[in-house]
Amino acid sequence: MAPLIWLVAAILLVAAEAASGDFFLLMLGGGALGAAGVSLVGTPVWVDGIVFAVVSILLIFLVRPALLRRFARTPIHATNVEALPGKHALVLEEVNEHAGQVKLAGEVWTARPADPEQVYEPGTKVTVVEISGATAIVGKEA
User: Fold this and answer.
1) What CATH topology corresponds to 80-140?
2) Contacts of 98 (CB under 8 A, 6+ apart)
3) Domain locations in the chain?
4) Among 107, 118, 109, 108, residue whose Cα is nearest residue 140
5) What residue ranges of the chain have pLDDT lower than 50?
6) What is the pTM (predicted TM-score) of this model?
7) Other CB atoms closer than 10 Å to residue 4's CB: what's the count?
8) FRET pair for 64, CA 20 to 30 Å: which of 41, 96, 104, 118?
9) Roughly how many angstroms between the first and final C-alpha of the chain, as a whole number?
10) Distance CA 51, CA 101 (A)
11) What digits encode the pLDDT tens for the residues 70-82?
């Protein structure tokens, strides 16, 4: 009877993992599966509990970090504003510490120089260093 209880616990924990996606309940399910295996031999319940705890702890500290790294979601390609730094722009209106406009990716952007002492004249090609709000921070073209 005990192996069946451990097996049901393992199935429920693995099913609950589908809702959380944190790999924690999955590790506990693995511990319950280990306890179910040991319980088949006819060990006392307290031995099953120890096996459950040890296997779960080992899985949490050894396997879970590798799974989290493997399935970490990072964007493959930068999109929207994140894709603009490093792009080239054309100065439309003098870019200085207080004002300026550039044409960047087909759109007109407010721009400021990365070095406040720099001034870029219209027609100059610049490189976007970063985007700060709706303002492109630009520097000399590389």
Assistant:
1) OB fold (Dihydrolipoamide Acetyltransferase, E2P) (2.40.50)
2) 112
3) 2-70, 80-140
4) 118
5) none
6) 0.54
7) 10
8) 41
9) 72
10) 67
11) 888 776 776 677 8
